[in-house]
Amino acid sequence: MMSKAIERIWNAIAFPEAALLGKRVPKKQFLESGELVASDKKLFRENVKNVYWEYTLKSSTCLVLPYRDNEREYLEVAVLQVEMITQKGHKRIAEIIHRAIPYPLMLGFYTESGDIALSIAPKRFSQAEQGAFVAERFYTTSWMNSESFKTQEAAFVASLEWNSMPLQTYGTVYNAWADRFIAHECSVFTGAFTIGKAGERLEQLTRCREIELKISELRGQIKKVAFNRQVELNIQIKKFEQELKQLAESL
Question: pLDDT tens, 5-42?
Fold first, then answer.
């Protein structure tokens, strides 16, 4: 039985009915991957309840053309939903699933409590191994409560509506998804969801994340040092916070 939380998301996106598959994927398909270390297997086993291949977007189910160039191949897109036992480690689990399946994917995570998260990962041909694919970057949202979306979260989900996508090819569709996931990441800092130039925003987002990490590290040090050093660290934190504010205003 599909959770109301993830059903709410799929209804908002409104994939073509012909694309519905609803097939369960055995967890062992991921757990038996030779690339997984013991800690990843433990994380997956203890926190993932079920994985379903919910939709298959391909030429026979949607009026969208496949895409291929020298770097990537988007012949079809698979939409999977992941039923989680807990919220723990969903971003790492997203990486495991994206790497295990060679198709470009959209993942929908959900819990019994009504929380959801979405994930995509643009892929290209591997330069090291013929016929293999590698994920260029992972875009995985934090958990969102499907019954009480923040304004920017609701705007993000609405922006993914299938018929509003550029449906020329699966390449144009996936690029449009990436633009929207980047816009969602920006909205975490700005509080507003706006779709902009993805390339420029990615550099700024990376710097924002670096500053956040630095501020967190400095705050952790404050408790362990003498008063004079605390003053110095607080000054550094204020400078980083100011830089973060300026970056957020330009996102």
Answer: 999 999 999 999 999 999 999 999 999 876 789 999 99
pLDDT digits (tens, 9 = 90+) for 48-68: 999 999 999 999 999 999 999
| pLDDT confidence of residue 2 | 63
Structure tokens at 35: 């690339």
Specify the residue for token string 């991957």: 33
Q: Are 247 and 207 in contact (CB under 8 A)?
A: yes
Low-confidence ranges of the chain (pLDDT < 70): 1-2, 34
Give the residue among 45, 85, 79 at the shortest CA–CA distance from 62: 79
